[in-house]
Amino acid sequence: MSVLCVQTTVENLQPIKVGGIFYQDFQFFQVPASSPHDVESLCMVDNVVYYHLLGTFPNFPEPIPPNRGEKCYNIQPVLNRGLGLVASRNIEPGEIIVTERPVLVLPVNIPFPRFRSRPITVLWNRLSEKQSSTTDFRKGIIDTNALGLQFFSAPELDNRYAGIFPEISRCNHSCTPNAIYNFDPSHLAFHLTANKTIAQGDEITIAYIEPLFPRTFRRTGFAGYHFFCTCPSCSLPEDKSLRSDALRTLIHDWVDPTVDIDGWEAHYDNTIRHTISNYGSKDSRIKAASISLTSPSTTPTDLRSVIHSGKQYYELCKSEDVHTDYIYHALERVALAYALLGEEDQFQDWGRRARIELRVLGFIAVGKSILTDEEWGKALESPTRFIDSGMKNVLK
Ligand SMILES: [Zn+2]
């Protein structure tokens, strides 16, 4: 599939600097739909992004794979939240709910007057019913519907662009979301993936902003979405909210050596500090995270501390009902440490959890996991064989 260049330079945008980006030399291109179920995308990106996409992904944009099985959600009114996505059947963790191309890709921080400039209008007309809309209305739609593009292939490009998606953009926010979305630049698409079991009738939610930030920070961030969050975490009474803030900060900073934990702990009372101290010192967590599973000098005691720390992290995330990318890493180490200790049942138990988390991460786990989904399948099917011999092949 080829990229059809409509116009290579947006001439009527003068080079001006906003938010660190020069608005000049834009590529304005159209990506045709790859199937009848797909949409055509119109994109406005700078040369850095354009040549990154073409240079990194030789087949850009790859056709969207067909969604597996029947559609598992409906778009319908949700109490006090306008329209939302509601599960029409039970959805398993790791299941891709939908893969979708954006209708529009636009730079974030578009200078306000330029919302009426010709290129933006051409892009905007993709949203047919909005053709005569006002600048304020356009800005409002972008503020409330656009989702930031994160480039796993080039994190320095994160959040410079946003996409408007026909259905994923209808997902409402929660600070305890049951789905995550990842931008897959090779397909110019978002994958919406369940991060926990979603029961039929439940609303499918994502996080517009980092759910691990304290409530006050989250509320400031929501202001940009013209929205006041009433999720279970945001609705807690003040004392319980402070405890939740502390635990979420602990999850966020679990093994980050740059964060001064004593500094933020000082904000909390003794009860909360006592709770935090149950998770050990920062040094002990960092030490457990840095233990090599394969070094000849690693002792069974070391493996036990990998297990202890990994389980603590997992339980902490469960208690706050949040999901992080680090969960997979922690669970993988717990399961493999059990395998190294020869504890087959525990390896299977924790390995199954790890495999589910690997599926939740999907394509962004490539290169970051020790075992692939297929290797997990074989290991969990024949744990004795894996423990006795196969491990040597995967734990290089
Ligand atoms: Zn909330």
TrEMBL record:
Name listed for the protein in its UniProt record: SET domain-containing protein
InterPro entries hit by this protein: SET_dom (IPR001214), SET_dom_sf (IPR046341), SET_domain_protein (IPR053185)
Domain (SET) ranges: 67-209
The organism's place on the tree of life at top rank: Eukaryota
Gene3D superfamilies named among the record's database cross-references: SET domain (2.170.270.10)
